[in-house]
């Protein structure tokens, strides 16, 4: 029963239940539900890891090549970062805001073709392993920044609400977490772009040719670099920074999902 | 130049190197990229005419949206960005150096705490904040000041990023202008001149490795690179993802296909003998006939839906050919390997099928420069985010020590 497909199906169920419990926690203000949500995500992460591990064994390579493989690894990265951030900062409401993002990516993965296809020769490169694995962490960090920034905006809207004030960290903390996650994501994104360029040079002889995927990673990079400027130099913190983090993550999602489904390019397999 | 002019020039330079200007241009380059990603690039005019309304297609063509990354305004935009980065980097460096080397001034710092002198050991105070070394200075007013600095390189963070971005753009642009590219293809045993260079490629061998499921594992060309004087320069394998590099040129394993030996006779007289590549034609000038090698079927099978190849292995190889006479297509047929095909008084034979290799060759100068630029960006980002400069000053005031730091958040609470 522990083959990849079953494990992934169980993962999806656990993540969905977790989102539901986190919503119950938040909407009905039942404190203990947050602990259930947290437990469910952790269980989901275990099954998710099993699913990825069995695929790795079956394919004899890391699951980073097809649209499905990248999506499920990406979701795994978000779940892992979430468990890490939750453990470090210990605030319960985070799950309410991060699990929906996790589910978007996980269900997107579920809709993809899951056949294990052998790697075409152009994809057999150590650079692409670096490229894709840093992309997982970069996107994961941006997802956290987005979730935390939405919390910021929600908290700002319901300033007087005692429940929210109790279970959400203060503004300063939210702002700092969002900034740190973006700084980390930005460094990773830079590695993603550079390693991708090196790989493209080795495979095709052009390190940058403005294909839509490259272009959108550039656009995402530009958005976050504007964020860093206004934040570090103009003191744009708080609400404006939070909106920026949400916008940046929209660009991340478009780079990842939109480009593959709407635009065409060389990257259609990744 | 009068004063007013100098003023305007100074003002424009200051604006050009300002962050506001840089960010506007950065934003614009992002916006243009969005357009470029939505409209397919580099197609013929007819493509846009067929796929967009007449209004939009004429707009796209007039505004150069069909090749936006080479449009004059995009180039100017990046030029302005570079100018801005250059001005800002040049004017900033001396200030950064000063900040790195100057002695901290407690007047501009935050007071962290005060401690009794007897109770405190200055060394311990520094150590507790992560400073292993510190210096002592006697100030003009005879006060003693201890100070230490850490992570000084952090001051260079954004400078490295900006110089890195500048280098990357400049070298990329240079590579785009100085770009050279050509192709060769051939079967093992052939020696091919690389057009536009002083080199020839001797194709020693070419093979395709298949996996058990029939998918391709790797394409390998075993080649020798020969220079103008006929000297062997290099002998190596070229794979997908592992180009052969020499003298700035890179040779990429790009494609493959089938070729055969080909002979054509008029009556009994051999009029031409050559290697015939799939999808090409052979025209003999003095004759009125032309043959086209239309398609190769390694594993031929005729089915109801038409003729197909059931695998990529040459189990039942056949050639689909087309005959042209005086420019008109007159016949098509499927030839077996070694079979003599006869058309009026012409006879021809396809023989010895084998795969050819197709190598793409290019030279893009500035790769190293762009690489150095992107490395600088990486280093700069790291310095910027994770090497925040930390400065601490301990002053004696009466019989107490007063401790200053450059930023409250980076110090542990004291006393
Ligand atoms: C293209 C990518 C760019 C990136 C990734 C980038 C990154 C950064 C970062 C991280 C900082 C913050 C330094 C700090 O306060 O610790 C910064 C500062 C700054 N940037 Fe950029 N930058 C870029 C382009 C530009 C451009 C085109 C301009 C236009 C002139 C510019 C002008 C400035 C200025 C004036 C500052 C503040 C002063 C300084 O710390 O040097 N930047 N940049």
Features of this protein?
heterodimer, A: 270 residues, mainly alpha, 9 helices, flat, disordered C terminus, B: 415 residues, alpha+beta, 6-stranded antiparallel beta sheet, 5-stranded antiparallel beta sheet, 8 helices, elongated, binds protoporphyrin IX containing FE
How would you characterize this protein structure?
Chain A is built from nine helices and no strands. Chain A is mainly alpha-helical. Chain A has two domains: 1-116; 119-270, no CATH class. In chain A, α5 (126-157) packs across α9 (238-261). Chain A is flat and about 60 Å long. The relative contact order of chain A is 0.11. With 415 residues, chain B is an alpha+beta fold. Chain B has helices at residues 3-16, 19-38, 45-51, 54-62, 72-101, 122-128, 157-178, 367-386, and strands spanning 110-116, 135-138, 144-150, 180-186, 191-193, 199-210, 216-227, 232-239, 244-246, 249-266, 269-277, 281-283, 289-297, 300-303, 306-309, 318-325, 328-336, 340-343, 346-363, 390-397, 400-405. In chain B, the strands form five sheets. In chain B, strands 4, 9, 10, 11, 18 and 19 form a six-stranded antiparallel beta sheet that branches. In chain B, strands 1-21-20-3-2 form a five-stranded antiparallel beta sheet, with no helix packed on it. Chain B starts with a helix and ends in a 10-residue tail after the last strand. Classes of the chains: A mainly alpha (270), B alpha+beta (415). Protoporphyrin IX containing FE sits between chains B (17, 19, 22, 26, 81, 84-85, 88, 92, 157-158, 161-162, 165, 384) and A (225, 228-229, 232-233). Protoporphyrin IX containing FE (HEM) sits between chains B (17, 19, 22, 26, 81, 84-85, 88, 92, 157-158, 161-162, 165, 384) and A (225, 228-229, 232-233).
């Amino acid at each position: 029963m522990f083959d990849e497909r079953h494990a992934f199906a169980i993962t999806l169920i656990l993540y969905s239940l977790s989102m539901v419990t986190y919503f119950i926690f938040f909407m009905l203000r039942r404190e203990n539900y947050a602990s259930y949500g947290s437990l469910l995500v952790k269980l989901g992460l275990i099954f998710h890891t099993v699913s990825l591990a069995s695929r790795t064994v079956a394919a004899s390579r890391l699951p980073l090549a097809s649209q499905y493989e990248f999506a499920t690894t990406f979701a795994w990265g978000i779940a892992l970062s979430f468990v890490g951030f939750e453990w470090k900062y210990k605030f319960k409401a985070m799950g309410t805001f991060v699990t929906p993002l996790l589910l978007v990516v996980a269900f997107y993965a579920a809709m993809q073709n899951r056949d294990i296809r052998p790697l075409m020769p152009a994809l057999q490169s150590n650079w692409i392993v670096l490229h894709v694995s840093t992309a997982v962490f970069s996107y994961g960090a941006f997802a956290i920044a987005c979730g935390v920034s939405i919390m910021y905006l929600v908290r700002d809207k319901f300033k007087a609400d005692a429940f929210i004030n109790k279970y959400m960290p203060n503004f300063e903390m939210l702002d700092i977490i969002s900034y740190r996650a973006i700084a980390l994501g930005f460094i990773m994104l830079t590695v993603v772009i550079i390693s991708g360029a090196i790989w493209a040079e080795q495979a095709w002889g052009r390190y940058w040719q403005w294909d839509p995927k490259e272009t959108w990673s550039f656009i995402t990079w530009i958005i976050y670099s504007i964020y860093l400027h206004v934040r570090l130099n103009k003191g744009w913190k708080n609400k404006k920074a939070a909106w920026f983090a949400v916008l940046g993550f929209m660009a991340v999602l478009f780079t990842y999902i939109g480009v593959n489904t709407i635009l065409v390019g060389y990257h259609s397999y990744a | 130049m009068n004063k007013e002019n100098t003023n305007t020039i100074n003002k424009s330079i200051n604006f050009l190197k300002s962050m506001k200007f840089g960010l506007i241009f950065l934003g614009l380059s992002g916006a243009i990229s969005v357009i470029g990603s939505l409209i397919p690039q580099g197609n013929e005019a007819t493509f846009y005419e067929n796929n967009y309304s007449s209004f939009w297609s004429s707009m796209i063509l007039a505004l150069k949206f069909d090749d936006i990354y080479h449009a004059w305004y995009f180039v100017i935009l990046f030029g302005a960005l570079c100018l801005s980065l250059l001005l800002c980097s040049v004017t900033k460096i001396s200030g950064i150096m000063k900040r790195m080397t100057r002695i901290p001034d407690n007047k501009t710092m935050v007071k962290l705490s005060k401690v009794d002198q007897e109770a405190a050991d200055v060394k311990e105070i520094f150590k507790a904040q992560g400073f292993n070394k510190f210096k002592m200075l006697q100030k003009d007013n005879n006060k003693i000041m201890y100070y230490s600095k850490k992570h000084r390189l952090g001051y260079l963070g954004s400078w490295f990023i900006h110089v890195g971005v500048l280098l990357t753009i400049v070298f990329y642009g240079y590579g785009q202008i100085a770009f050279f590219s050509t192709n060769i293809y051939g079967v093992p045993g052939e020696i091919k001149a690389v057009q536009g260079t002083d080199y020839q490629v001797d194709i020693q061998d070419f093979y395709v490795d298949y996996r058990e499921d029939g998918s391709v594992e790797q394409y390998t060309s075993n080649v020798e690179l020969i220079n103008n004087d006929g000297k062997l320069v290099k002998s190596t394998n070229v794979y997908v993802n592992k180009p052969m590099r020499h003298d700035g040129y890179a040779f990429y394993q790009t494609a493959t296909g089938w070729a055969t030996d080909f002979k054509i006779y008029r009556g009994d007289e051999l009029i031409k003998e050559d290697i015939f590549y799939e999808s090409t034609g052979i025209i003999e000038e003095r004759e009125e006939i032309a043959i086209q090698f239309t398609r190769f079927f390694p594993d031929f099978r005729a089915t109801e839906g038409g003729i197909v190849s059931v695998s990529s292995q040459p189990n039942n190889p056949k050639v689909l050919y087309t005959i042209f006479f005086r420019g008109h297509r007159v016949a098509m047929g499927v030839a077996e390997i070694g079979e003599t095909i006869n058309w009026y008084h012409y006879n021809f034979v396809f023989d010895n099928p084998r795969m050819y290799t197709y190598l793409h060759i290019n030279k893009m100068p500035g790769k190293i420069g762009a690489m150095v630029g992107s490395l600088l960006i990486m280093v700069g980002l790291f310095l910027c985010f994770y090497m925040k400069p930390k400065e601490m000053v301990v002053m004696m005031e009466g019989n107490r020590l007063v401790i200053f730091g450059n930023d409250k958040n980076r110090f542990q609470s004291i006393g």
